[in-house]
Amino acid sequence: MATRTDLDGRPIKPMTICMIGAGGFIGSHLCEKLMSETPHKVLALDVYNDKIKHLLEPDSLPWAGRIQFHRLNIKHDSRLEGLIKMADLVINLAAICTPADYNTRPLDTIYSNFIDALPVVKYCSENNKRLIHFSTCEVYGKTIGSFLPKDSPLRQDPAYYVLKEDTSPCIFGSIEKQRWSYACAKQLIERLIYAEGAENGLEFTIVRPFNWIGPRMDFIPGIDGPSEGVPRVLACFSNNLLRREPLKLVDGGESQRTFIYIKDAIEAVLLMIENPDRANGHIFNVGNPNNEVTVRQLAEMMTKVYAKVSGETVLESPTVDVSSKEFYGEGYDDSDKRIPDMTIINKQLGRLEPQDIPLGLARIYPNLPTQDLCRGY
């Protein structure tokens, strides 16, 4: 493997990375990238390894010996600090991050995203280990624009809806709207990490993903996951398409989102890993501001893509409106728009060039009509 250089032309030294949550959607793609393109070693920590099993077996793989899987739950495992001590860099991806859980399991959500992350931050700070912590775009909550009158021309002004790491306020719903338990816990751990950096010199980078999509993201109920439960929007829509059911649009599908393909997003993460001088002390939005669609538009797009690649006809009534209370239960609330400002990351790490949604969706649906489709979400 040729000598790799950072953005400033300096050779990149091989490092050992302790990746917590390596067996999840983002972790599995990051492990693939690190194994195939870098000389770095990975201590992969998770409860499950199904999504990275192809990287662990057989022993004849070219990266054999550079990735070790450690089955543990960071809530109660005395090995955690020792594994962090063995690493040059810690990446924390562990979280409950499925919207259907936020208001039905708020205690688990808060513990997972704040309490369980505390020891990781503490061990990194005490042992002088660099930390890349994965947060969420949900920390922004609702936009300023959503509180303006519906006919206000200010709603069209980007200053009222584009989300900036260093200036945008974080606006959550009222306490009984337990959907914000996730965002609030994530914001508080961000503040703690930032304080550790300011007071104790912790070297950190915080990542705020904006709706990353791709293979292995989620589960299809009863096919490659539990028969009960509500996965995220793309998996829900995939489930409906596979079962020839109308796609359910919560509250009319008016919420707007920006989507980015996982492999495009992982490019940015690798730059953070290998350019600490440019990444330390920063919070980075990672998304595609040009890929904004309403959830209703996303449903229409997925329906067309699915019909094209599967050869099946579109249902006479391809969508149906449902209320958020009916779909998610009591206490649900939502953000109106999530559009990332990319100024800081483009300045620090170079301009990102993510692909548009239709191409991203096509890459997710490679082999229809097989059940592998569901692993696209």
From TrEMBL:
Segments forming domain NAD-dependent epimerase/dehydratase: 17-287
Keywords: NAD
Transmembrane parts of this sequence: none
InterPro entries xref list: Arna-like_SDR_e, Epimerase_deHydtase, Lipid_A_modif_metabolic_enz, NAD(P)-bd_dom_sf
CDD domains reported for this sequence: Arna_like_SDR_e
GO MF entry, a single one: carboxy-lyase activity
Protein name in UniProt: NAD-dependent epimerase/dehydratase domain-containing protein
